[in-house]
Amino acid sequence: MPGTTESLAANDPIFARLEDQIDWYDRKSRSAQHYFKRIKVIEIFSAALIPFLAAVNFHYDKLVTAGLGVLITLLEGVLHLNQYQQLWNTYRSTCESLKHEKYTYLGNAGPYAGAADPHALLAERVESLVSQEHAQWSSFQQQAGKSSNTNEI
Known about the structure:
87% of the residues lie in helices and 0% in strands. Helix 2 packs antiparallel against helix 3, helix 2 runs parallel beside helix 5 (118-152) and helix 4 (84-106) runs antiparallel to helix 5 (118-152). The N and C termini lie far apart (58 Å). By secondary structure, the chain is mostly helical.
């Protein structure tokens, strides 16, 4: 079947768009997941060190402990601003929905089985999924902007 999807993507702009979007959402989901997990691991490690450092005495113990607290705060701020966990989940969900459309279309199943023009239906459904995700992202960005503006007052 991979030869079939490759030849479809090479010859069909709608299927090429579908493959491109699946690839984009998959890459962005993985990237957001990696950023989120890496930052969280650093936060957890830093937080675990604070009680340990509080129990030992060395020349810069208070400075290091305070620095770890600042680091945790900064990392949490980065997570809040960039919303890596939400992006990871949203992009993964969109990617899986696009994959579902791809395999349903290839199997001529579901809504494609009885469609007068399955190819046009695929285009509509793919664009609908991408548009929905973009609208959610846009709405979230506006809400994030509003909440950060209210914090400045």
